[in-house]
Each structure stands twice: as structure tokens, then as C-alpha cells.
């Protein structure tokens, strides 16, 4: 059993058990702090030792480079010349190795030491300061309460009332501080999982990259070593009949690393709060916009802007003004309001609020406003103001949006993660939820609605249902298999639970998940992997009936449930559950512990392919491990990169191995065959050289005389007159 969640409601009770849970969280943080402190000490010692070794190695390399063999006579043999040059080659190999070691040492400082020091001082330190405040306020609160309760009842009423007020104010302050402290405690417990482990991952990545560079240097050295051994043997044989004397000379060397304002003329401009209506039960929100009106053209411009969130400007909207009407307080529970109606959206007014009555008059005058009639009930809008339902119109909305997305935007990057402008999304949803206008909207062919507006409207519709699509009743039972069991048992359990959903819920879920499966199949283009879709649709399709801290901690498991639905759509929705299998674990049963789920989504994390020589730390596909290739020798480069993520230019069909590249013409080229004639290639990713033998280039660069290299995973080519190595998975042959 891990640490128990700290419920905010317990702050007001402040029970002994609540205090015990707080102490458990504090003890865990103190243990983490001590561990990080000791780890930092060891890490700094490691860096110091690495630097000392590097200094000694460099000194040795300098000595080798400056040493020169003297020959007897007036000429050297070819073997002697090669032997004479060998020390310089040895020096170069060592210097190249030490350059990589220096990068590794710097990487340890930047990726491990500094992030951990920052986390310990800023994050853990901030919680420590909050603990001091909390302990101090606890002492003050209960001391004051004891003193207050000891007051004599015979004191004057005025004195007692003043004491009561003081105690109540102090208790309120204590509760607020308690809430903040509990929030920070739980936040740091969750934050440390990634802020601690991520620097460690970077540290090992850097270390393994260094060793891999050493492996690459050793392969280069092996070819040179074989030739040098022949030179040495020939010289040794000559030495038998010749006595020579050698003198050397050595020396050492050192190395050295905005804002403009656009003026415009408007009849009136300034900030207004704009009401953004949402389907029940979400009500409405008021968003501050900077609004401008050009009277001659009757163009109204509104741009969302919030000073408190860093001053980020949202997507602006421009429309032609039809009319402006003053709102009475009888029709809205806010002052200084008026309605603005756009010419292209009759009957759908925007309600705006000025900062004062004087400002409202200025806006009304500039916009040609008029007094409103007394409000009357508009029966046609009842459905728009009501909540979404699982009815015929609901299914129509779903199918219309899906068809539009698959027709117009299936390859859009960030599909479903990029959100639309709130006011536009609300207008589209209002039109779709109106029985009179729903069938008239053509989302597939009309460019009036952006794809991000359509996807946001679809998500908003699903969130607006009276209960989530996967129901409150089954919420807990869906969560259980995501927390425990083998991958197969999880799929079986969720398969069973889906078929317990009400028929309409299951039908709509089937339509949606089939669409999400299609979206994930285009992940190379839209970057929406199964994992990304789980993040988006987990909270949309599932949510608990009661919001607590413990329930919020289950969000990640909701995402896993959606991932399982997408990855196993055909089985779950096209077949009946196996009646011979046991039913899923119920809410009352404590599930056994199980290893975390690993799925195919792990191979889709990186947008940009990693150069072949860099060590890839992607996990092996636990559900479908790839057998090792028999023709790959132990210790070769292929064995290091066999589980690297497949870049977009590689063939995704099951036939070709990873050494095949798809050209512009659709031909598969076998890189392992070493039978490629010279040809041109174009860069599909930018690359910065990490070694003098490599080429740096931008997207679109065209290489001449491209040939396979003896380095696995690399090509040789010429760019701007310079010849060098090119990562094969960064280019496409022409």
C-alpha cells in the first residue's frame, strides 16, 4: 500500500489520522531529500574522477603526438613512414575519445547534477518552507483556541465578541494554509517520479552514447591496426640485421568555446467580457476580450486576452455587425451588459459586459445600440440550452464530425489535441444540437468550420452528456483491470465490461473508437499515437461521479482503458466475450499487484528519428517482441539499434527489414547489400554534425554522389563541395 491521498475536506477536520497521513508524506519527502543529497555528492565525485582521467589521457595523447622517430640514413622505408605516423594516429584516437568523455562529463553536470540540485532546493525546499509555516500556524491556532476557551463567561459581551472574531479569522487563515500545504505535499510526491528519474535517464543515455562512440572508434582503429601490424612485422624483420638507435622529443599543447505596437483608428475599442455559453451542465463562462469596432465598414473585432495568464493573445474573430441591444438586469444577473448580433449569424447574439455603465453607453452609442424588449421564452432554443443526449441528433453529430475529420484532417498534426476557438466551437455545437439546422450543416465540404473547431465540438458534445459514455456505474470496474493483471486479462476484462454497457452507449463508443483507431493508424503524419489519444479521450469518455483527490489519481488509468479499446477495437466490439473466462474483478475485491502495462505505443514516442550511431533506449515491444536477426553479428551496430523507432521514411509493411529504405519512386533499397550505385538524396530531417567526419544540413538539402558507407546505418555523400557521412534514416533517395 502506497501513501494515502490527502483529501482537502480533511483539512477542516484535522483529525489524528489526517495528521498521521501528513507525517507519512513528510517522512517520505525527507527520505527522498537525503537520498538526492547523497547521490549529488557521489555524482560530483564521479565527475571529478572522470575529469582527472581525461586530463591524464589527454596528456598521454599530447605526448604521443609530439613524439617522432628518427631514422638512420637519408631516407625511410614505407613501413617506417607508417610506423612514424602511427603515434600521431594513436594520439588522434585518444583525443577523439577524450572529446566524447568531456561531452559526457559536461552532460552529467547539465542533465543530472543541476536538475537534481534545482529539484532539491526549489521544489523540496519550497515544501520544507511550507511545513515550517504550517507547523507555526498550527501552534498559533490551537494556542489561541485554548486561550479563547479559557475566557471567563463573565467578561463583557463586546470583549467576547471581539475574541470570537479574532479566533474565527485565525482559523480561516489556518485552513487556507492547510489546504495549500496538502496540495503541495501531494504535488511534490507525484512530481518527483519524473523530475528525479528523467535526469537519471539522460545520464545513462549520455554514458551509453560515450561507450558507443568508443565502440565506433574501435572499429575505425581495427582497420588501421591490421595494416600497422604488417608494417611492424616488416620492420622487425629488417631490424634483425640492422642496429638502430632512437631518440625522441616531446612537447605539450592546450585547446580552447521584442516588441511593437500597431496603431489603428476605430470608433470605439477596449476590453469587454464576452459570455461563452456551453451545453448543460457546464453553464457559461465570461472571457475578457479586447474589442474594436470600425464604424464605416461595420466590422467588429474581438481578441481574447488575459493579463493574469502572462498576457497571451488568443485567436481573434471578426464579424459584420447587424445590431446591438441593451440587456436589462431582468434578463441577466450581471450589470452593464448588451447583446451584439452578427450579420452572418442571425438569432445567435453574443452577450458582452462593459466595465461600467458609462463604458456601456459609449459602446452602445458607437454600435448604434437600442433598448431591448422584455425577455420572452424562445422555445426553439430550448434544446440548444439543454444538455446533449444519446439520441438521433447525438449520433448525427458524431457521424458528421467523424466523416469531416477523416475527409479533411486525418493527417493534421496534433489532431484532437489542438483546440478550437471557444466561441466558434460553441456556435458550431449550438447549430448541430438544433434539430432544425443539424442536417443542413455540411462539415465535409464547407470551409467555414476549421478541423480543430469540429474536433473540439465533438469532444464538447461527449463531455456534455448527462453521464460519461462509459457510465458512472461501470467507471470503477473499468479502472480495476487497468491497474492489475496481465495484458491479456486486461483486454478480456474490458471486453466483458463493454458488453455490459447500455446498447446506445456501446453503439456510440464503437463508432468513436473505430474512428480513433483510424486516427492512430496515421500517427506518422498526425503524431496522434494511441497513447496521445488515450490522454485526450480518457477524461472525455470516463469520469467519476464524485471528484476527489483519490479519483484524480486514477486519471492515468482511464487513459490506459481508452488505449486498450483502440488497440483491440475489432476483438472488443466485433466479438462476444468468452463465457468460459472468469468475470472481471469487482469493486469490492482487492486486485493483485501486476507489472505496468507495455504496449505498441512505446515505439511511437519520437517524432524525429535518432541517428543510427546514437544509442536508442526505446523499450522492446512486450506484446510482440521481435526475434533477433540471425545474420547480425554480436556487437555490431545493428544489434544496438534493432529496437529504434521506425522513422517516417522507412517502410511500415511487415515484409522489409529495417535495413530497407523506401525511395521517392516506391522502390525498396537494401542497405545491407552494399550494392548501391551513386545517386542523389534529399534531407527529410535537419541534422547537426557531432563529428568532423559528418555533414550538417537542413531539411531539403540535396546530396550528390551518395553511396553506402562501410559504417552501418550511414551513407557517404557530398554537400556544397564537402564529403562526409550522412545518417541513412535522415534522407530519401531521389
UniProtKB/TrEMBL annotation:
Main localization is membrane
Basic residues compositional bias, start-end: 598-607
Domain SH3, first and last residues per copy: 676-734
Task: List, alphabetically, the InterPro entries matched.
Answer: AH/BAR_dom_sf, BAR_dom, GRAF2_SH3, GRAF_fam, PH-like_dom_sf, PH_domain, PH_GRAF, Rho_GTPase_activation_prot
Origin species = Vombatus ursinus
Q: Which domain of life is it from?
A: Eukaryota
Q: Where do the PH domain residues begin and end?
A: 265-372
Q: Name the residue ranges with Polar residues bias.
A: 633-654
Q: What does the record list as coiled-coil region(s)?
A: 225-252
GO:BP terms for this protein? cytoskeleton organization; negative regulation of apoptotic process; signal transduction
Q: Where is this region: Disordered?
A: 580-607, 620-662
Task: Fetch the Pfam families from UniProt.
Answer: BAR_3, PH, RhoGAP, SH3_9
Q: What's the protein here called?
A: Rho GTPase-activating protein 10
| Record key words, sorted | Cell membrane, Coiled coil, Cytoplasm, Endosome, GTPase activation, Membrane, SH3 domain
- Domain Rho-GAP positions: 388-573
Gene Ontology MF, one:
GTPase activator activity
Q: A single GO CC term, please?
A: cytosol
Which taxonomic lineage does the organism of this UniProt entry have?
Answer: Eukaryota, Metazoa, Chordata, Craniata, Vertebrata
Q: What subcellular compartments does it reside in?
A: Cell membrane; Cytoplasm, Perinuclear region; Endosome membrane
What does this gene product do? GTPase-activating protein that catalyzes the conversion of active GTP-bound Rho GTPases to their inactive GDP-bound form, thus suppressing various Rho GTPase-mediated cellular processes. Also converts Cdc42 to an inactive GDP-bound state. Essential for PTKB2 regulation of cytoskeletal organization via Rho family GTPases. Inhibits PAK2 proteolytic fragment PAK-2p34 kinase activity and changes its localization from the nucleus to the perinuclear region. Stabilizes PAK-2p34 thereby increasing stimulation of cell death.
Amino acid at each position: 500500500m502506497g501513501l494515502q491521498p490527502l483529501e482537502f475536506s480533511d483539512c477542516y477536520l484535522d483529525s489524528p489520522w489526517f495528521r498521521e497521513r501528513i507525517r507519512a508524506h513528510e517522512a517520505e519527502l525527507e527520505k527522498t531529500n537525503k537520498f538526492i543529497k547523497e547521490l549529488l555528492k557521489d555524482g560530483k565525485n564521479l565527475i571529478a574522477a572522470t575529469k582527472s582521467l581525461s586530463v591524464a589521457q589527454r596528456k598521454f595523447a599530447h605526448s604521443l603526438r609530439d613524439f617522432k622517430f628518427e631514422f638512420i640514413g637519408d631516407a625511410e622505408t614505407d613501413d617506417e613512414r607508417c610506423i612514424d605516423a602511427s603515434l600521431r594516429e594513436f594520439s588522434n584516437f585518444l583525443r577523439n575519445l577524450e572529446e566524447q568523455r568531456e561531452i559526457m562529463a559536461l552532460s552529467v553536470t547539465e542533465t543530472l547534477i543541476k536538475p537534481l540540485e534545482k529539484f532539491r532546493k526549489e521544489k523540496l525546499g519550497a515544501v520544507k518552507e511550507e511545513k515550517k509555516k504550517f507547523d507555526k500556524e498550527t501552534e498559533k491556532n490551537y494556542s489561541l483556541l485554548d486561550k479563547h476557551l479559557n475566557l471567563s463567561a463573565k467578561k463583557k459581551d463586546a470583549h467576547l465578541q471581539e475574541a470570537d472574531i479574532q479566533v474565527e479569522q485565525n482559523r480561516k487563515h489556518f485552513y487556507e494554509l492547510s489546504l495549500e500545504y496538502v496540495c503541495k505535499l501531494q504535488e511534490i510526491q507525484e512530481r518527483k517520479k519524473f523530475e528525479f528519474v528523467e535526469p537519471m535517464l539522460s545520464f545513462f543515455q549520455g554514458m551509453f552514447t560515450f561507450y558507443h562512440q568508443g565502440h565506433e572508434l574501435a572499429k575505425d582503429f581495427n582497420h588501421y591496426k591490421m595494416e600497422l601490424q604488417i608494417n611492424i612485422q616488416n620492420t622487425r624483420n629488417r631490424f634483425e640485421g640492422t642496429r638502430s638507435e632512437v631518440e625522441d622529443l616531446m612537447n605539450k599543447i592546450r585547446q580552447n568555446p521584442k516588441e511593437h505596437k500597431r496603431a489603428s483608428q476605430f470608433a470605439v475599442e477596449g476590453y469587454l467580457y464576452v459570455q461563452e455559453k456551453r451545453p448543460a451542465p457546464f453553464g457559461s463562462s465570461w472571457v475578457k476580450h479586447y474589442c474594436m469596432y470600425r464604424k464605416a465598414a461595420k466590422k467588429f473585432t474581438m481578441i481574447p486576452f488575459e493579463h493574469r495568464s502572462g498576457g497571451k493573445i488568443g485567436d481573434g474573430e471578426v464579424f459584420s455587425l447587424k445590431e446591438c441591444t441593451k440587456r436589462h438586469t431582468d434578463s441577466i444577473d450581471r450589470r452593464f451588459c448588451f447583446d451584439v448580433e452578427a450579420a452572418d449569424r442571425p438569432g445567435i447574439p453574443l452577450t458582452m459586459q462593459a466595465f461600467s455603465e458609462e463604458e456601456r453607453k459609449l459602446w452602445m452609442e458607437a454600435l448604434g445600440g437600442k433598448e431591448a424588449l422584455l425577455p420572452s421564452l424562445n422555445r426553439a432554443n430550448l434544446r440548444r440550452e439543454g444538455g446533449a443526449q444519446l439520441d438521433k441528433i447525438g449520433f448525427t453529430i458524431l457521424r458528421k464530425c467523424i466523416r469531416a475529420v477523416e475527409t479533411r484532417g486525418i493527417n493534421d498534426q496534433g489532431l484532437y489535441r489542438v483546440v478550437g476557438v471557444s466561441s466558434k466551437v460553441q456556435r458550431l455545437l449550438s447549430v448541430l444540437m438544433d434539430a432544425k439546422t443539424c442536417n443542413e450543416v455540411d462539415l465535409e465540404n464547407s470551409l467555414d468550420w476549421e478541423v480543430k473547431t469540429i474536433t473540439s465540438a465533438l469532444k464538447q458534445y461527449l463531455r456534455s452528456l448527462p453521464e460519461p459514455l462509459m457510465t458512472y456505474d461501470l467507471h470503477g470496474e473499468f479502472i480495476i483491470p487497468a491497474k492489475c493483471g496481465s495484458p491479456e486479462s486486461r483486454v478480456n476484462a474490458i471486453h466483458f465490461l463493454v458488453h455490459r454497457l447500455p446498447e446506445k452507449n456501446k453503439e456510440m463508443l464503437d463508432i468513436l473508437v473505430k474512428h480513433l483507431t483510424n486516427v492512430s493508424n496515421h500517427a506518422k503524419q498526425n503524431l496522434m499515437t494511441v497513447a496521445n489519444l488515450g490522454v485526450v479521450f480518457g477524461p472525455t469518455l470516463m469520469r467519476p461521479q464524485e471528484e476527489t483527490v483519490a479519483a484524480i489519481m486514477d486519471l492515468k488509468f482511464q487513459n490506459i482503458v481508452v488505449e486498450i479499446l483502440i488497440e483491440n477495437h475489432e476483438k472488443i466490439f466485433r466479438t462476444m466475450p468468452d463465457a468460459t473466462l472468469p468475470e472481471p474483478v469487482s469493486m469490492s475485491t482487492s486486485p493483485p499487484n501486476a507489472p505496468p502495462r507495455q504496449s505498441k505505443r512505446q515505439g511511437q514516442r519520437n517524432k524525429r528519428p535518432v541517428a543510427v550511431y546514437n544509442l536508442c533506449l526505446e523499450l522492446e515491444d512486450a506484446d510482440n517482441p521481435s526475434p533477433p536477426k540471425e545474420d547480425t553479428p554480436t556487437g555490431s551496430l545493428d544489434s544496438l539499434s534493432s529496437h529504434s523507432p521506425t522513422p517516417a521514411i522507412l517502410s511500415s509493411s511487415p515484409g522489409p527489414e529495417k535495413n530497407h529504405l523506401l525511395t521517392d519512386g516506391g522502390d525498396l533499397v537494401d542497405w545491407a547489400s552494399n550494392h548501391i550505385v551513386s545517386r542523389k538524396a534529399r534531407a527529410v530531417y535537419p541534422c547537426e554534425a557531432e563529428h568532423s567526419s559528418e555533414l550538417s544540413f537542413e531539411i531539403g538539402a540535396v546530396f550528390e554522389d551518395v553511396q553506402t558507407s562501410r559504417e552501418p546505418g550511414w551513407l557517404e555523400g557530398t554537400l556544397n563541395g564537402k564529403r562526409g557521412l550522412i545518417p541513412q534514416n535522415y534522407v530519401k533517395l531521389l
